Amino acid sequence: MQVNLPVGLTNGIFQDAKLARALGEELAGEYCFAEPYPHIVLDNFLPEAMAEDILANFPAEKLDSDVNYVGGYFEHNKRQILPYACNQAALNYFLGFNSAPFLQFLEGLTAVDALIPDPYFSGGGFHEITKGGKLGVHADFRIQNQLHLKRRLNVLIYLNKDWNRAYGGEFEIWDREMSGKIKGIEPLFNRCVIFNTDASSYHGHPDPLNTPDGVTRKSLALYYYTASRAIYDEVPNSGTEFQARSENEAQEVLSLKGRGPLLKEVLPPILYRNLRNLKRKYFNKKTVNG
Description:
Helix content: 25-40%
CATH class of the largest domain: Mainly Beta
Distance between the termini: 56 Å
Oligomer: single chain
CATH topology of the largest domain: Jelly Rolls
């Protein structure tokens, strides 16, 4: 079932993290229990004016930084446009999709916590497929090598007005055994598809695009990641370590170093967090009151 969800700068989704998460949580059941893997299709995803402006700022001319795939059996007539090569208006939208409130929307929707956006937009950005182009059914790359992050989610927003089903270009979702297609999703204007990426979340648009000359299949692609908890085995989880400039400050530093780690060791985590929060509130109140 498709759900209408207006999300964008004009209604506060990029400014209000609590609202963003609440909107995501409203749809979490549909997302998490979708077959054959968690996904959702959202029509009218962005405010109309925002979607129109993104399309208006889609680079029509080829850019030097474009990545083009031509002649491949599985990946053909595909243009990939780096957000940093676009004008400022387009770039601002991409940066908005990397903002903390939008991450909160995704976390609420998917139940995947601690999501991290890709500041480099590796493999993402604007995508454009021309006549005869296709993208074979596949499972996506799993690791962002530059940042050593695990890929968890894809967000695709389509920018194709007056799309005709005869053009093809449906986004296909296949079962985990690659025994059959589960559904085909037309790439309609302002339609968003969000889905988990794992070893068998197979998808693509494998049939050649049958568009008239001058009509292309346009989309905006965003990928989101999580970090590995193995970092705790590599880096000691110490707090901020202040250094003393004098004997007086040395006593304060010694007090801080002795208090924090000891309490963290002897207190249950929830009590330690509550004590720390109370200390912050007291300090802030004391600072405000002079």
